[in-house]
Structure formats: structure tokens, C-alpha cells
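Side project, low priority. Logging it here so it doesn't get lost.
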Amino acid sequence: MIPRLLRRQIVERLAGFPAVAVLGPRQCGKTTLARSWRGAWFDLEAAGDATRLDVEWDTLVNGRRLVILDEAQRIPELFPRLRAAIDGDRKRNGRFLLLGSVSPELMRGVSESLAGRLSTVRLAPLLLPELRARQLDDLWLCGGFPDGGVLGTRTFPVWQDDYLEALITRDLPTWGLPTRPQQTRRLLRMLATCHAQTLNASQLGASLSLDHKTVVRYCDFLEGAFLIRLLQPFSTNTQKRLVRSPRLLWRDSGLLHALSGVTSLEQLYAQPWVGSSWEGFVIEQTIGTAETLGLRCRPYWFRTSDGYELDLVLDFGTERWAIEVKLTSHPTPAMVQRLERTADLIDASRRILVCRVSRKSENATTLVTHLSGWLNVLSAMASSR
């Protein structure tokens, strides 16, 4: 089993809370990770396990084993029972581990019944620090789902096509997306063409015969299902006019590439949008690694109306870091100067240019490095806190 970075954070949360929810997209490795605790296991998508849980409830609640509930969102009536069990012995921590494939916004039982009793963590698909550095291109092409091809199996992009089809026809309707599968397929293909662009709901709506409010609602839903990310714009006091629309990003590069008809790295490099694919991949690896390591920061993007842009801004509260991403092994001085000028607009204390260089270069405030080196910076920061 591949050691997952999130395990340490789950152990810490179980020590401090009665229940912990591990949320993330389907097939990202939640079940494999949770089984390492060897608790009382229940797959709530299986009718037999749901019945067994109901019958054994009193014994489980009064016992000392960790109770692991996979796909907990399938049984909403479970959450009031969890609340009663936790309140019956509030001083006991580490009692329940819940696994779910949708965000708390879609898991109403979590927000309504278990507030203050449960800690939530998010498991991303595989991250580069969990793999070998030489697997970078496989991770970029195939995405981070363990069964999607990154580990050497020849499943890309067939696995991604099947994964999306299952979401479209089964999971998304079950979770409450009010649209037909045919329309959902069209929406996902349209969103793939908009990757790394600002969200233009009116334009998307015109292509899909939907009003812009419906498009925004559907995008919010897909974000809650961990398919896309709406990266919010960073606002600051400046005389320049700012772009205030969110930037739309596909969270898994393998799903993006499958939707776009890309089947190989050679074909990816031939695409006019290959730079946008690389940008989105680096952004998601950065955000996923920061969250997994427990770094408390808010991610944004930044653009002025006259073209000054930062692909990612990490706001740590006491300081801001400006990150620019380029698909090049030879960054020019002009790229670094542009980053410096744009970072000055938001008073960033650190400026990072992530590209395909083999060796890093840095001074007191600016770092030019490859992706592994940049993620190592985040790891070092998490270790020092």
C-alpha cells in the first residue's frame, strides 16, 4: 500500500474528536487508507452491511473498536444516531471514522447533526510527494486516481471514461444534480474546454440552453462532488482594476485529458492548451499537498484588467505567497521580473516560479524551482509548525 500523507492528520484528529470524516472523490483511496486501522468496518452501499450496522449498533456504541462507516452519505438517518451516541459519552474521542464521496455542503447530515462533534479532512487523489519524482509525467497525464494508470497499469483513458460515466448516470443524480445524463455529459465536455479560464456562466449557458444562474448552481454542485474547483479571485487595495470572476479548474488532470480526447503524453504536448493543463495540474498538486499537510492557508488567483496575473496566491493570514507556473525548462529573466512586479501588487512576501527546471535558484524572496522542489518547500513549512 502506498503510504498516504493524510494518515498523520487523521490520527491527530481521531485523538481530538469523537468522529472524523474523510471526504474525497470516489476511488481516490479512502477505503484502502481507512482499512489500515482495522476497525469495525461497514460498507453502507451494501444492504447487508447497513442491516448489520443497525442490528449491532448498541454493541458497537458501547465497545472500544473504531467504527468505520464507508459511504456514510448513503444513509442520512445515520447522523442523528451518531450524534446521540457521541453525546452519550462526550469525553471519548476516536470512536467513528466516516468516509464520504461528497463535500459537507452535500452531506447535510454532517453539517446539521454533527457540528462540533466531528472533524473533516479531505483526501486528494495521489500527490507527487506520495510517489517517486520520476512518475511526474504519468501523474500529469493520467491523474492521481490509483487505478487510473499512474501506477503503471494501462488503463488510461478507459478507466477515466468509465469513471465519468458512472458519475454521470448513477452518482451525480443520486447526490441531487437535477439534470439528465445527456446534458451532464455536454456540460462536462464544455467545462473541459474552459479549464484554467475564468468562469463565464452566461456563455456556457448559451451553449447548453440554460440560464447563467442554473450553470452557476450546477458548477457549485460539481465542485462539491470534487470534480472541479472554482478558484476565487484575490482582492487587494490597488489602483488597477481587478478581474473578479472565479477561475475554473479541473481537479484531476487525467479526467480533463480523457474528456479532451488526449491518450498520450505526445498528444498532450501537441495541444494548444497544454500550458493550461500544466498550470492546473501544478495548482491542484499545490493545494492538495498544503491541505494534506495541514497548512492553514486560503488559495486564490489574481489578475488585473491590464494583464498582470498570478496563477495562485496562498494567503497564510500573516503573509502571502505568489506562485506563477510555466511549462518551460528555461525560464527567462523577463518571466521572473513579471512575477516580481505582479507580486508587488499584493505585497507578497515570497515569490515562486514553478517550471520544468532541473535545478532550483533562489534569493531572499524569490524561488525558481521544479514541482518536487516546490512541494518540498510546503512539506518543510508544515514540519516547522
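Brief comment: The mean pLDDT is 94.
Revisit when time allows.
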